[in-house]
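Q: How would the structure tokens look for this protein?
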Amino acid sequence: MMKKIIILGTTSSMPTKSRNHPGIFIKFNKRGILLDCGENIQRQLRMIKISPTDIDYILITHWHGDHILGLPGIFQSLSSMNYNKKLNIIIPKENIENLKRIIEDFIIPINFDINIIEAREGLIVDEEDFQIYGIKTKHSIISYSYYIIEKDYIKLDKDILNKYNIKNKELIKKLKEGKEIGINGKTISYKDVGYIKRGIKITYITDTIFFDKLIDFAKDSTILISESTYFFQPDLAKKNMHMDFLEVREIFNRSNSKILLLTHFSQRYEEEMENIRKDIEEKNENIYILDDFDEIYIYKDKIELKLKRKEVIYKYDEKTRDILRLN
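A: Here is the predicted structure in token form.
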């Protein structure tokens, strides 16, 4: 099933003329997941014809304004739109009361279920087809980063099944469960008629200094989305509890991630961003600087990056998560 990533905001603490506060919408199989919710996020959603009612999960990294100022508007809209699902919100334990006060202080008539889930290290959510994991990061306040990973599953080849004349649903079910079956005196395993499809992994790291555990957290990401608040100023980044591009690139290279998408830029680089983009994208393979409204589509056999300034297509191997750029 196709996955879609829509970039809603790419600046850091202050919006600019071309960049909104942080926010990323992911359509992960049938679930809509919003990563952070900065100011003006619901308008950004409207601009690309995504309704707030498409959101099933909101993942909040921390309680700084650029990551949460859009929450009151989202809540207000959902209350007016007959939202009939349960809204799951992952948030640091220390900010749960802040979240409740937003609803009280803005007098929002919540008429739908809200399921508040405490952020934590390790497994946070275990859905039928995907999981969400967290890691506590190192910022000026309590902060977490997250990854979403599709569960591996056995995929059977219909042509090979027909070759063996395997049509019985119960036998096919057993193969999908990894069990062996008997056909015409032969023992057949899933390896004879299919393979294990490795799940897509999307990792989101922001508002933290560099530390080694982030490398393992990002390991084997199909898509790694990371803050690059600073460029070639690692000392300044550390002083302000953020990461520099050089540190993010180290995470990317050492984690065996496939594609790195950079976001959460300091407004200080607004005027020189095009020169920075050219320098980085010409010298570094599979690393891209994001803009608001960039789109990424992940299919079973390819990944498309529909970026503001270019489109990039990769061949994708769902058995290994390996990629090959085609253009």
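The chain has a mean pLDDT of 95.

Residues 3-152+198-325 form a domain with the Metallo-beta-lactamase; Chain A fold (CATH 3.60.15.10).

Upvote if useful.
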